Amino acid sequence: MESGLPPQSATLASAAPARLDSPALAPVLQPLSPLALQLQRVTGAVVGRPLELAAIQQELGVARGGRLAGVTVEGEPGIGKTRLLLAASELAVAEGFATVAVTADEEIRGPFLLARSIVGSAAAVEAPHAAEAVGRSLGALSGHDDPGLSSLPPDQKLLRTLDLAAVAIRTLAAERPLALLIDDLQWADDDSLRLLRYLVRANAASPIFLMAAIRPEELAFVTEAVNLLADMERIGMVRRLKLTRFTQTQTAELLRQILGGKVDAVGAAAMHGQAEGVPFIVEELAHAYLDAGMIQEIDGTWALAKKAERLVPSAVRTLISRRAAHVPEGTKAAMSLAAVLGRHFSLKDLQAIAVQLGEEETSLDALDAAMSPAVAAGLLVQHAADSAADYGFSHDQVGAFA
Ligand SMILES: Nc1ncnc2c1ncn2[C@@H]1O[C@H](COP(=O)(O)OP(=O)(O)OP(=O)(O)O)[C@@H](O)[C@H]1O
Ligand SMILES: [Mg+2]
After folding, report:
1. 77 alpha carbon to ligand 1 midpoint, in Å?
2. Nearest ligand, CA of residue 103?
3. Would you state the pLDDT for residue 314?
């Protein structure tokens, strides 16, 4: 995770031990939400995104009216998905919703882990009217079910687990509309994704606002998540918001928030160009330049030192090497060949170079397959089938790095 969220150890340390042998008898349920999303207070207002905020507001209204309403927020790493999820949670609280915010994790996965974080969240566990339903569901989700039921065949057991969770969430929402916010859905465990699929059908007539942030490139590899979205689209229960990069005006506005004052137009333009409108990179750049003393306040306006425009921004490089850390060597090799071709390239041209250089793998299929981990890591973008180039580097510096 490059941004936004605090280190996972902090989140995990706060999780209570997962013991609930006899849920119905448990006098007080402890929140057990290993994947709770820390709702850190965000200082500045959301920059831009007026249409997205209006859509969220509208879907909150639909949910409050007694129907499950779904929203996804999709886009490349660092584009502002989590930020919008936080904004949605603030709007939901203001509208009187009980809010549960969780995040799936790239490294920490386990059966029903995300689901347990939802049902075991403070908002669920501390709602007195739902204590019994929540307790039973948590018992089933963590495998501490009634001993009499342990002999059920696996498919029936699964169904019962899904059912108990749906009942718990429905019971919660019956008292007060419920906002369920899920960050990084692409990393959710399959069982939890199945549960969400079950929920949208079983609880369609409940006041539930379900919002998920998703990296689309990675989603493609997660069958259960693809199924979930397809299901929700089929029943017309989801609004998909796709975040685009900032305009130069928006970058300048974000810089103003970070620096706490006006930014000189030339400097803002230079940083917008370097970050290419990706808010996370804008922030990283601003902090890097501040640390290096290359951005300074003169008469109430922040100005960037002249030479900064020519520097390769180290923050961008750090970001890229972090994204590239999990990419296989074969992919890196193919990317560095591709970099010779410029920002955008076709597989055919890449193949021609590979053949010329006597590379081992030169079939189009193999080269195409080599690209997919880089797409998943946000280093490359895949172009539409009808465009001349097949792939492009997501940021100018990625090509230079490769
Ligand atoms: N619209 C916005 N207004 C103000 N700040 C923003 C906005 N969008 C993004 N940011 C800031 O940019 C940084 C990156 O945004 P965020 O973490 O939401 O991206 P993300 O899409 O969730 O990335 P990832 O895919 O890595 O999780 C954050 O510090 C966030 O506060
Ligand atoms: Mg995020």
Report:
1. 8
2. 2
3. 65
Predicted confidence at residue 27, as pLDDT, reads 38
pLDDT average, residue stretch 207-224: 90
- The answer to whether residues 368 and 346 touch, using CB atoms and an 8 Å cutoff, is no
Query: Is the distance from CB of 51 to CB of 57 less than 8 angstroms?
Result: no
**Cα–Cα dist 53/46, whole Å:** 9
8 C-alpha vs ligand 1 centroid, how far in Å?
A: 18
Distance of CA 341 to the CA centre of its chain: 31
The Cα–Cα gap between 226 and 382 comes to 18
Q: Which amino acid, residue 217?
A: E
Average pLDDT of the residues in 73-78: 91
Minimum-distance ligand 1 atom for the alpha carbon of 47: 3
**Cα end-to-end span (Å), the chain:** 21
3-class secondary structure for 208-250? EEEEEEECHHHHCCCHHHHHHHHHHHHCCCEEEEECCCCCHHH
Contact 268, 248 (CB under 8 A): yes
List residues near ligand 1 (CB under 6 A).
Answer: 2-4, 44, 46-49, 75, 77-83, 213, 215, 254, 279-280, 283
Q: How far is the CA of 354 from the centre of ligand 2 (A)?
A: 36
Tokens 């929920």 belong to residue: 199
- Could you tell me the domains of the chain? 8-242 (3.40.50.300), 248-311 (no CATH), 325-401 (1.10.10.10)
How do strand 262-263 and strand 301-304 relate by DSSP bridges? parallel
Nearest CA, atom 9, ligand 1: 80
Over residues 256-307, the pLDDT tens digits come to 999 988 899 988 998 898 888 999 889 888 888 888 788 888 888 998 887 7
Q: How confident is the model at residue 195 (pLDDT cuts 50, 70, 90)?
A: very high
Task: Identify the pLDDT of residue 298.
Answer: 86
Residue 8 is encoded by which pair of tokens? 């996972």
187, 109 Cβ separation under 8 angstroms: yes
**Residue-level length of the chain:** 402
User: Which residue's alpha carbon is at the smallest distance from atom 8 of ligand 1?
Assistant: 80
b/e string for 269-301 if b means 16 or more Cβ within 10 A?
Answer: bbbbebbbbbbbbbbbbbebbeeeebbeeeeee
Distance (Å, rounded) from C-alpha 269 to C-alpha 265? 6
Best of 245, 280, 287 for a ligand 1 pocket test (most atoms within 8 Å of beta carbon):
280
